[in-house]
Amino acid sequence: MPFLRKCLSIVRFLLVAGIVVYVLLVAGLRIYVETYRQEPIRRPVAALVVLSAGPLDEQRIYRTAIRTEFAAQFHEELLQEGDVPKFVTTGCCDSRGPAMAGMAEELGVSPEHIIVERRSYSTLQNALFAADLLGNLKDSHIVVITDRFHIPRARASFHWAGVGDVVLLAADGEDEPVDWDNLFFEAMKWPPNLIRAAAHSTLSALGWERDQLDRMLK
Question: FRET label pair with 145: which of 21, 52, 152, 165, CA 20 to 30 Å apart?
């Protein structure tokens, strides 16, 4: 019985600690999106990396379409100012990335500028596979486009993937309302992200094959 009580006490402690951490994450994200101010973007920009947020809907009114349209407009502005950035679309398997690339072409982005990442299922894979496709460009100034609530995790993921000179750009601007649902789900994704990234780095240092490790990041 003493052993059982001790086990129950530990379980209760871990449960309470988990709830406290989760509440703090949600609160921190709420404060972040409400106080967000866009950081400056240096020139030249070598590439724009556009992160998806679900399938590209036919009406093109949801977040993936909004991010793609925002990125296409920004790409055009950079071209007019003399930069020639690559336009990287990232998304789930063989659907979102190509669909975003097709939309970008319709919006005027030249196919010769577009790089399609079509293998990723998570932000960690977005970052890792985009870095692979960028090659030497990943050491240049990279702009990653997403929404405010996702910026902290996306920034951490790209730094982890070896993209050091990266600026995150919010497609939803500084003032657009952010639903609580986005914050609740985003806070849930932080712990598994940290665990998987740490495991990937540790096992990579121990000599595991890259293909095996990349699958654990889904």
Answer: 21
Q: Is 197 within 8 Å of 32 (Cβ atoms)?
A: no
Whole-number Å distance between alpha carbons of 173 and 169: 8
Q: Kindly state whether residue 22 falls inside one of the protein's structural domains.
A: no
Q: What is this structure's pTM?
A: 0.90
Flag whether 98 is in a domain: yes
Query: What does DSSP say about strands 47-51 and 114-117: parallel, antiparallel, or unpaired?
Result: unpaired
Q: How many residues does the chain have?
A: 218
- Please report which confidence band the pLDDT of residue 93 belongs to, taking 50, 70 and 90 as the band edges: low
Reduced to 3 DSSP states, what percent helix, strand and coil does the chain have, rounded to the nearest 5?
60, 10, 30
Give the total number of structural domains in the chain.
1
Q: Read off the pLDDT band of 197 (50, 70, 90).
A: very high
